[in-house]
Write a structure and sequence with these properties.
The chain is built from five helices and two strands; from the N terminus they run αβαααβα. It is mainly alpha-helical. The chain starts with a helix and ends with a helix.
Length: 204
């Protein structure tokens, strides 16, 4: 059964983290906020550009919305493990009980049991696959919501900062060859994101 559960465990443990980095590394390599569209002669010179970056690793560690979502995924992993293990143990107990009948088992009974055993194991595999798909779909939805929250916050945040670009950075998906830590606005962004989230999350 370990071979059946292992892919699910891995998927549930890293699905959100992987999607997090993939969603924020698409296209140009990260979140970017421009003060206004520019083209042709209105293109600013490099010296007039104001640039900052956000560390996604820190957002993972400190953004309450993200941490709560990860805890939800971990609980789902544990529940899936428990349900699949329970289902497998039931099938295994039936197999052991059947084998213990020994020589009293007829060929017809053995063939019927083998067919039923195979059917149940296939159903269990289908159940595992459905769980994987469900969690993957939920992970994609969560990442879209997370990206939307960050982009919306940065757009409002940048109204008074006038950055030409705000990039995303991660140690796992490093799209920046060099970064000046003076340009790091992560703590401000995390503080703002958490304040916004705390205003909207349900009271316990």
């Amino acid at each position: 059964m370990k071979n059946i559960l292992l892919p699910l465990n891995i998927l549930l443990a890293i699905a959100v983290a992987v999607l997090f980095f993939l969603h924020f590394s698409k296209g140009s390599g990260g979140v970017s906020v421009a003060k206004s569209p520019v083209s042709g002669d209105s293109m600013p010179s490099p010296s007039s550009l104001k640039i900052a970056y956000v560390d996604l690793d820190s957002i993972q560690d400190k953004y309450e919305y993200y941490k709560e979502k990860m805890n939800e995924f971990e609980r789902k992993k544990e529940n899936a493990d428990r349900d699949l293990n329970s289902a497998f143990q039931k099938i295994e107990n039936e197999r052991v009980a059947f084998v213990q009948k020994g020589q009293s088992i007829t060929q017809v009974e053995a063939e019927n049991f083998q067919r039923e055993y195979t059917r149940k194991m296939q159903n269990l595999e289908n159940q595992k696959r459905n769980l994987e798909n469900s969690i993957q779909n939920e992970g994609v939805k969560t990442m879209e919501e997370l990206k939307k929250k960050i982009n919306e916050f940065l757009a409002e945040y940048n109204e008074s900062r006038d950055y030409s670009y705000i990039f995303s950075y991660s140690s796992n998906v490093n799209m920046l060859f060099y970064k000046d830590t003076a340009l790091n606005i992560t703590n401000e962004v995390i503080q703002g994101l958490n304040e916004a989230y705390n205003k909207t999350k349900p009271k316990k």
